[in-house]
Amino acid sequence: MPSSLRALYDTPFFDLLSHAHQVHREHWTGNEVQLCTLLSIKTGGCSEDCSYCAQSARYSTGVKAERLMQKDDVLAAARRAHESGSTRFCMGAAWKGVRSGDSRFEQVLDTIREVSKLGMEVCVTLGQMGPTEARQLREAGVTAYNHNLDTSPEFYPEIVSTHTYQDRLDTIAAVQGAGMAVCCGGIIGMGESVDDRLRMLEVLCSFDPPPESVPINCLMAMPGTPLEDQAPVDVFELVRLIACTRIRLPRAKVRLSAGRTRLSREAQALCFYAGANSIFYGDKLLTAANPGEDADHSLLAALDLKPQRPFADLPVPARANAEAVAVLH
Ligand code: SAM
Ligand code: DTB
Ligand code: SF4
Questions:
Q1: Which of 52, 128, 263, 328 has the fewest CB atoms within 10 Å distance of its CB?
Q2: Can you give the C-alpha Rg of the chain in angstroms?
Q3: Which atom of ligand 1 lies closest to the CA of 46?
Q4: How many alpha carbons lie under 13 Å from residue 120 in its C-beta half-sphere?
Q5: What is the Cα 80 distance to its own chain's centre?
Q6: pLDDT tens for residues 153-191?
Q7: Which residue segments constitute the domains of the chain, with CATH numbers given?
């Protein structure tokens, strides 16, 4: 952990907050927050053992394994998202990964071709994949691929044993190589240290190009998972991490992601002040609850924040992620 990042994190709270806010204002205009709709297109029954996840088949969480959603049902949800003001539509699948030629992957590609005509940013999170699958997704119209590092390389084996941190980095390199934007962040509140969180941020900062968006999730302690009894994360730790992310990745959309149901309006206001400028919108995440649309509209209105319009151009990564891989060696 570079001492400079830890020193930044440990800056007196209001100094850190005003520094982050100043960086935010230098890079972002209009007091805008992007609204993103999530849809679980394939829920539950996942082979992986991510210890935070209600969709792993290894834990009794009450989440049933479902079939991949049909194109028309996904399209209807995407149209509703567009009409309700979302500028990004994110489709998630509880898979270890995808393979070219697999009929379910073909079905997802077919769905994406239609969803991408609606004028929203199109994000998918389908697990591990290589360069061929990444290129196919890009050609179908995906603008960003979400694949989180979730925590530090050192802590990762404590929460997942069925794949490695290097597997995650390899998928991210494939995404960049195909010219899609990378959406990559993590979860706090799994029992990791502050240094683990900053180490994750350090790895994110080593990406070339930097991630286009960084979701910061607070663990939703899902009943039946190994992490079901984890205590909620301290809100000021969340705000400090958001502030450091904004300062170190000034052009990234910093997405205040899972766990907002536990955050007061005041806590969320601090997160926005520290540089968060994107949220998941709608009353459901993948399997867990999210604040309702009315609550979010009232919060944004109270803070004089406006829903963000999509960018004309997404940053197009030019080369593979060699430096992010190098940082681990
Ligand atoms: N299977 C794919 C994968 O693992 O990349 C995509 C779906 S996975 C559910 C997407 C992300 O959701 C995870 O990487 C994690 O950051 C987040 N997530 C899942 N369960 C969570 C929970 N209980 N609390 C907070 N974040 C969670
Ligand atoms: C991300 O970082 N957070 C979203 C999205 N990417 C796919 C998922 C949050 C999931 C929360 C737990 C659930 O709904 O099961
Ligand atoms: Fe599967 Fe993704 Fe959940 Fe891990 S986080 S169990 S890979 S759905």
A1: 328
A2: 18
A3: 1
A4: 29
A5: 21
A6: 999 999 999 999 999 999 999 999 999 999 999 999 999
A7: 14-328 (3.20.20.70)
